[in-house]
Protein backbone atom coordinates (compact mmCIF):
# COMPACT_ATOMS: atom_id res chain seq x y z
CA UNK A 1 0.00 0.00 0.00
CA UNK A 2 1.37 3.42 -0.98
CA UNK A 3 2.02 5.88 1.82
CA UNK A 4 0.02 8.50 -0.09
CA UNK A 5 -3.16 7.50 -1.87
CA UNK A 6 -5.21 9.73 -4.13
CA UNK A 7 -8.68 9.30 -5.51
CA UNK A 8 -9.98 9.30 -8.06
CA UNK A 9 -7.14 8.41 -10.44
CA UNK A 10 -9.01 9.93 -13.36
CA UNK A 11 -11.77 12.49 -13.40
CA UNK A 12 -13.76 13.98 -16.23
CA UNK A 13 -15.98 16.96 -15.53
CA UNK A 14 -18.08 19.43 -17.44
CA UNK A 15 -17.12 23.08 -17.34
CA UNK A 16 -18.60 24.75 -14.32
CA UNK A 17 -18.75 21.66 -12.13
CA UNK A 18 -17.42 21.54 -8.58
CA UNK A 19 -14.52 19.11 -8.34
CA UNK A 20 -13.05 17.29 -5.36
CA UNK A 21 -9.83 15.30 -5.30
CA UNK A 22 -8.98 13.34 -2.18
CA UNK A 23 -5.68 12.40 -0.59
CA UNK A 24 -5.07 10.02 2.30
CA UNK A 25 -1.71 9.32 3.87
CA UNK A 26 -0.41 6.82 6.37
CA UNK A 27 2.74 8.50 7.71
CA UNK A 28 3.32 11.32 10.13
CA UNK A 29 3.76 14.54 8.23
CA UNK A 30 4.98 18.06 8.78
CA UNK A 31 3.20 19.48 5.74
CA UNK A 32 1.10 18.47 2.76
CA UNK A 33 1.44 19.89 -0.73
CA UNK A 34 -0.91 20.01 -3.66
CA UNK A 35 0.88 20.28 -6.99
CA UNK A 36 -0.34 20.79 -10.53
CA UNK A 37 1.38 19.21 -13.51
CA UNK A 38 0.42 20.31 -17.00
CA UNK A 39 1.08 18.35 -20.19
CA UNK A 40 4.73 18.95 -20.95
CA UNK A 41 5.60 18.18 -17.36
CA UNK A 42 6.01 21.50 -15.58
CA UNK A 43 5.06 21.26 -11.90
CA UNK A 44 3.60 24.16 -10.00
CA UNK A 45 2.95 24.22 -6.28
CA UNK A 46 -0.66 25.12 -5.53
CA UNK A 47 -0.79 24.82 -1.76
CA UNK A 48 1.34 23.88 1.20
CA UNK A 49 -0.63 23.31 4.37
CA UNK A 50 -0.21 21.74 7.77
CA UNK A 51 -3.65 22.45 9.23
CA UNK A 52 -7.05 23.85 8.38
CA UNK A 53 -7.92 25.30 5.04
CA UNK A 54 -6.40 27.52 2.37
CA UNK A 55 -8.05 29.25 -0.57
CA UNK A 56 -6.56 30.70 -3.71
CA UNK A 57 -8.96 31.91 -6.35
CA UNK A 58 -11.20 28.99 -7.32
CA UNK A 59 -9.03 26.47 -5.50
CA UNK A 60 -9.54 25.37 -1.92
CA UNK A 61 -7.41 22.88 0.02
CA UNK A 62 -8.31 21.38 3.36
CA UNK A 63 -6.51 19.02 5.67
CA UNK A 64 -7.63 16.96 8.64
CA UNK A 65 -4.53 15.91 10.55
CA UNK A 66 -6.39 13.51 12.84
CA UNK A 67 -8.00 11.73 9.89
CA UNK A 68 -4.78 11.92 7.80
CA UNK A 69 -6.80 13.23 4.90
CA UNK A 70 -6.75 16.22 2.59
CA UNK A 71 -9.02 17.42 -0.18
CA UNK A 72 -8.49 19.76 -3.10
CA UNK A 73 -11.60 21.47 -4.40
CA UNK A 74 -12.00 23.37 -7.64
CA UNK A 75 -15.06 25.57 -7.93
CA UNK A 76 -16.54 26.58 -11.29
CA UNK A 77 -14.12 24.32 -13.15
CA UNK A 78 -12.75 25.43 -16.51
CA UNK A 79 -11.02 23.52 -19.34
CA UNK A 80 -7.76 25.25 -18.44
CA UNK A 81 -7.90 23.39 -15.09
CA UNK A 82 -7.23 20.18 -17.03
CA UNK A 83 -4.00 18.80 -15.60
CA UNK A 84 -2.61 16.18 -13.26
CA UNK A 85 -3.06 17.09 -9.60
CA UNK A 86 -0.57 15.56 -7.21
CA UNK A 87 -0.74 15.27 -3.46
CA UNK A 88 2.62 15.08 -1.69
CA UNK A 89 3.55 14.93 1.97
CA UNK A 90 6.65 15.98 3.85
CA UNK A 91 7.71 13.39 6.37
CA UNK A 92 10.81 13.60 8.50
CA UNK A 93 13.10 16.58 8.82
CA UNK A 94 14.71 16.67 5.39
CA UNK A 95 11.78 18.15 3.54
CA UNK A 96 11.73 15.39 0.95
CA UNK A 97 8.32 14.76 -0.55
CA UNK A 98 6.42 11.48 -0.80
CA UNK A 99 4.01 11.65 -3.70
CA UNK A 100 0.62 10.24 -4.52
CA UNK A 101 0.08 8.76 -7.95
CA UNK A 102 -1.75 11.83 -9.18
CA UNK A 103 -5.27 12.53 -10.39
CA UNK A 104 -5.74 13.27 -14.07
CA UNK A 105 -8.47 15.85 -14.49
CA UNK A 106 -10.12 16.68 -17.77
CA UNK A 107 -12.64 19.48 -17.86
CA UNK A 108 -14.75 19.52 -21.00
CA UNK A 109 -16.27 22.72 -22.37
CA UNK B 1 13.48 36.31 -10.60
CA UNK B 2 14.90 33.23 -12.31
CA UNK B 3 13.42 29.91 -11.36
CA UNK B 4 15.00 26.48 -11.21
CA UNK B 5 16.59 25.53 -14.49
CA UNK B 6 17.66 22.14 -15.75
CA UNK B 7 19.71 21.00 -18.69
CA UNK B 8 19.48 19.37 -21.06
CA UNK B 9 15.71 19.43 -21.50
CA UNK B 10 15.88 16.18 -23.46
CA UNK B 11 18.56 13.53 -23.62
CA UNK B 12 18.59 10.39 -25.73
CA UNK B 13 21.38 7.97 -24.97
CA UNK B 14 22.34 4.44 -25.78
CA UNK B 15 22.17 1.73 -23.17
CA UNK B 16 25.45 1.48 -21.32
CA UNK B 17 26.49 5.10 -21.76
CA UNK B 18 26.93 7.54 -18.87
CA UNK B 19 24.80 10.69 -18.64
CA UNK B 20 25.00 13.87 -16.59
CA UNK B 21 21.97 15.96 -15.76
CA UNK B 22 22.34 19.48 -14.43
CA UNK B 23 20.23 21.53 -12.06
CA UNK B 24 20.60 25.23 -11.30
CA UNK B 25 18.52 26.07 -8.24
CA UNK B 26 17.07 29.42 -7.32
CA UNK B 27 19.85 31.65 -6.02
CA UNK B 28 20.08 31.51 -2.24
CA UNK B 29 18.20 28.25 -1.90
CA UNK B 30 20.23 25.94 0.28
CA UNK B 31 18.07 22.84 -0.14
CA UNK B 32 17.99 20.94 -3.42
CA UNK B 33 16.07 17.77 -4.30
CA UNK B 34 16.19 15.35 -7.20
CA UNK B 35 13.07 13.40 -8.13
CA UNK B 36 12.25 10.96 -10.91
CA UNK B 37 9.03 10.32 -12.77
CA UNK B 38 8.89 7.22 -14.91
CA UNK B 39 6.25 7.00 -17.62
CA UNK B 40 2.82 6.41 -16.16
CA UNK B 41 4.15 6.44 -12.61
CA UNK B 42 4.23 8.89 -9.77
CA UNK B 43 7.16 11.01 -8.73
CA UNK B 44 9.78 9.40 -6.54
CA UNK B 45 12.44 10.98 -4.37
CA UNK B 46 16.09 10.36 -5.25
CA UNK B 47 18.37 12.57 -3.14
CA UNK B 48 18.35 15.67 -0.95
CA UNK B 49 21.13 18.22 -0.57
CA UNK B 50 21.45 20.74 2.23
CA UNK B 51 24.24 23.00 1.12
CA UNK B 52 26.84 20.78 -0.49
CA UNK B 53 26.08 17.78 1.73
CA UNK B 54 23.62 15.02 0.96
CA UNK B 55 22.10 13.90 4.26
CA UNK B 56 19.49 11.78 2.50
CA UNK B 57 20.43 9.61 -0.46
CA UNK B 58 17.86 6.96 0.34
CA UNK B 59 16.03 7.22 -2.98
CA UNK B 60 18.98 6.52 -5.27
CA UNK B 61 17.96 3.24 -6.95
CA UNK B 62 21.43 1.75 -7.42
CA UNK B 63 25.13 2.55 -7.20
CA UNK B 64 25.00 3.59 -10.84
CA UNK B 65 23.36 6.79 -9.64
CA UNK B 66 25.33 9.54 -7.96
CA UNK B 67 24.94 13.24 -7.43
CA UNK B 68 27.01 16.13 -6.27
CA UNK B 69 26.51 19.76 -5.50
CA UNK B 70 29.14 22.45 -5.50
CA UNK B 71 29.21 26.01 -4.21
CA UNK B 72 25.79 25.52 -2.64
CA UNK B 73 24.49 26.02 -6.14
CA UNK B 74 24.62 23.77 -9.18
CA UNK B 75 23.96 20.06 -8.80
CA UNK B 76 24.76 17.26 -11.20
CA UNK B 77 23.03 13.88 -11.24
CA UNK B 78 25.14 11.23 -12.95
CA UNK B 79 23.84 7.90 -14.17
CA UNK B 80 26.50 5.41 -15.17
CA UNK B 81 25.98 2.51 -17.56
CA UNK B 82 22.42 3.59 -18.30
CA UNK B 83 19.70 0.98 -18.57
CA UNK B 84 16.35 1.21 -20.32
CA UNK B 85 14.57 1.33 -16.96
CA UNK B 86 16.39 4.61 -16.28
CA UNK B 87 14.20 6.29 -18.91
CA UNK B 88 12.21 8.92 -17.05
CA UNK B 89 11.79 12.62 -16.45
CA UNK B 90 14.29 13.76 -13.85
CA UNK B 91 13.08 16.75 -11.87
CA UNK B 92 15.02 19.04 -9.61
CA UNK B 93 13.49 21.25 -6.95
CA UNK B 94 14.93 23.79 -4.55
CA UNK B 95 13.74 25.50 -1.41
CA UNK B 96 15.08 28.19 0.86
CA UNK B 97 16.15 25.52 3.29
CA UNK B 98 15.29 21.94 4.11
CA UNK B 99 12.66 20.83 6.56
CA UNK B 100 9.03 21.72 6.72
CA UNK B 101 7.55 25.11 6.18
CA UNK B 102 9.26 25.97 2.92
CA UNK B 103 7.89 25.73 -0.60
CA UNK B 104 9.71 23.62 -3.13
CA UNK B 105 10.11 25.14 -6.59
CA UNK B 106 10.42 22.67 -9.43
CA UNK B 107 12.49 22.88 -12.56
CA UNK B 108 11.11 21.88 -15.98
CA UNK B 109 12.80 18.51 -15.87
CA UNK B 110 15.12 16.53 -18.11
CA UNK B 111 13.48 13.83 -20.18
CA UNK B 112 15.94 10.94 -20.44
CA UNK B 113 15.39 8.22 -23.02
CA UNK B 114 17.68 5.20 -23.01
CA UNK B 115 17.56 3.23 -26.25
Account of the protein in words:
The complex is a heterodimer of chains A (109) and B (115). In chain A, the strands form 2 sheets. In chain A, strands 2, 4, 5, 9, 10 and 11 form a 6-stranded mixed β-sheet that branches. Chain A has strands spanning 4-7, 10-14, 19-25, 31-37, 43-49, 52-56, 59-64, 69-74, 83-90, 97-99, 103-108. Helices cover 0% and strands 59% of the residues of chain A. Chain A is globular, with a radius of gyration of 13 Å. With 109 residues, chain A is an all-beta fold. Chain A is built from no helices and 11 strands. With 115 residues, chain B is mainly beta. Helix content of chain B is 0%, strand content 50%. Chain B is built from no helices and 11 strands. In chain B, strands 2, 4, 5, 6, 9, 10 and 11 form a 7-stranded mixed β-sheet that branches. In chain B, a hairpin with a 5-residue loop joins β4 and β5 (43-50). Chain B is globular, with a radius of gyration of 13 Å. The termini of chain B are far apart. The mean pLDDT of chain B is 93. At the A-B interface, β4, β5, β9 and β10 of A face β4, β5, β9 and β10 of B.
Amino acid sequence: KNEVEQSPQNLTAQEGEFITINCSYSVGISALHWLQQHPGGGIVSLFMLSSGKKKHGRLIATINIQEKHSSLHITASHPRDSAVYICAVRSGNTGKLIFGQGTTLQVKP
Amino acid sequence: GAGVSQSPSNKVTEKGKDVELRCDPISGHTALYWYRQRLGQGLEFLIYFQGNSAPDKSGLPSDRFSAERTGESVSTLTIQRTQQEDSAVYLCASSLTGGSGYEQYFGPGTRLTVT
